[in-house]
Design goal:
Order of helices and strands: HEHEHHEHHEHEEHEHEHEHH
Number of helices: 12
Helix content: 40-55%
Oligomer: single chain
Strand content: 5-15%
CATH superfamily: Aldolase class I
Strand order of the largest sheet: 5-4-3-2-1-9-8-7-6
Largest sheet: 9 strands, parallel
């Protein structure tokens, strides 16, 4: 049985560490390889999985994830494939969240999508372009199906916006550590610790930090002040740069192991 997001984050906290969250677009570079990549992540230390629903207009995604989503769409990946991937990955026993822009959910049907997520074993949904004030239908559907709702906050968010967003979340709050689009970076954002501190002033929910982490050293830096470290572009790059499928999966596993190892270091001991 798959553990819930809250239970998994609580277990990691009890272990004195932050949780490691790994993201890849579903169907990249093809359905079978994406499933194998998620399994490699989990086997190498990822605690929660984000399955991205490929979308043709990913306004918040940087070039790395955009390129991967384009490949997934070109290979024929559709929402039904994403749900099949979620169902397979969820059997690994780690919480499996779907990250998606809102338009595909509306096109699918909000209540129908929530039902399908629940049936596939998903823990819930991360919605980067949806705000709580416009999410009444999703709130009703997610409550009905017992799904977590994860919204994003940014350094530019006002204190009032942080409070409103956190109150609508279930599972954790997703703190984007930099302004702008996603992508691995040479250094983590100096704005991230302050943002996490501000979020903690308005909620007791765990706070996950994403956007920019690319190796174990950076993961250790973020794990020192966040409840979860979210890594996406660096995993995508493993597959984009690989000479073949086997090399890509090996690279994904190696990165996951490096990230997990970094978060176990003494300087990554939790400060919350």
């Amino acid at each position: 049985m798959t553990a819930g997001v809250a239970a998994t984050l609580a277990r990691c906290r009890a272990d004195g560490r932050a949780a490691l969250v790994g993201y890849l677009p579903a169907g990249f570079p093809d359905v079978e390889t994406s499933v194998a990549a998620f399994e490699a992540m989990v086997d190498s230390g990822v605690d929660l999985v984000e399955v991205g629903l490929p979308y043709s207009d990913p306004v918040m995604d940087g070039p790395t994830i955009q390129r991967a989503a384009e490949q997934a769409l070109a290979s024929g990946t559709r929402t039904t494939d994403v749900l099949r991937i979620v169902e397979t990955v969820a059997t690994s026993g780690v919480p499996t969240l779907v990250m998606t822009y809102w338009n595909p959910v509306e096109r699918y049907g909000v209540a129908r999508f929530a039902q399908a997520l629940h049936a596939a074993g998903s823990a819930g949904l991360i919605t980067p372009d949806l705000i709580p004030e416009e999410a009444a239908e999703w709130h009703a559907a997610s409550d009905q199906e017992g799904l977590d709702r994860v919204y994003l906050v940014a350094p530019s968010s006002s204190d009032a916006r942080l409070a409103t967003t956190a109150a609508a979340c279930r599972g954790f709050v997703y703190a984007t550590s930099i302004m702008g689009v996603t992508g691995a970076r040479e250094r983590t954002s100096s704005a991230a610790p302050a943002l996490v501190s501000r979020v903690r002033e308005v909620t007791e929910l765990p706070v996950g930090v994403g956007l920019g982490v690319s190796d174990g050293v950076q993961a250790a830096e973020v794990a020192a002040f966040a409840d979860a470290v979210i890594v996406g572009s660096a995993f995508v790059r493993c597959l984009l740069d690989a000479t073949d499928r086997s090399a890509g999966l090996t690279a994904v596993a190696a990165l996951a192991a490096d990230l997990a190892s970094g978060m176990q270091r003494s300087d990554a001991s939790v400060s919350w």
